[in-house]
Amino acid sequence: MTNYFNGTIQTLETRVADKLSDYRFQHSVRVRDYAVKLAHDNGVDEDKAEVAALVHDYAKELSDETFLSVIKAKHLDSDLLNWGNYIWHGVVGAEIIRDELGIEDDEILNAVREHTTGGAEEMTPLSQVLFMADYLEKGRDFPGVETARQITDQSLAAGVRYQIVHTVLRLVKKETPIYPKSITTYNYWLNRGLLN
Ligand code: GDP
Ligand code: FE
Ligand code: FE
Description:
Layout: H1 9-19, H2 22-41, H3 46-55, H4 64-73, H5 85-101, H6 106-113, H7 125-136, H8 145-154, H9 156-173, H10 180-192
Helix pairs in contact: 2-3, 2-7, 3-6, 3-7, 4-5, 5-6, 6-7, 7-9, 8-9, 9-10
């Protein structure tokens, strides 16, 4: 734990609770529980999974102005300016998490960056664990969630494939803009997800 966050897990929980509404903090705790289980089942570092999951939505309730100023101050990809909170809270959120919480581990920060869209191409097992835990935590209740849980219990990669296919399908059906990285993740995992 001390390697990933300069304090106890209780301190980290308090920092996240102070930053979020109760509703979203409870989501983060459920993602933590699911991520630790998936990490255990897949031989992934459970402490890393716990930290990544607790902080994954840390930036989600910040204002658009805050994200825009961080994108400019840190000279992040200017294409980010064309998107919104749903993309910023992961990609820009990782920078905020590093600065405010002192979490420096690149694997954790990348898992946070990739938690909404997937990682475009290959994702570390930790990234896959966080991506799936956010989708499958016990409070999630969408058609197919039980199927998605069962598939993920069989194979983490098959779960990633299931999620990205169904998310892209849902976004297309709603005629919502799709972030290019989501499409690249879809193309890659369509075939990759069949392997282990
Ligand atoms: P949350 O932060 O726990 O609510 O979950 P996520 O970070 O995974 O997703 C945030 C929102 O972004 C969800 O409503 C996703 O369906 C949505 N989302 C994911 N990928 C894309 C995308 O490429 N385009 C758009 N418009 N929305 C997306
Ligand atoms: Fe999120
Ligand atoms: Fe989340």
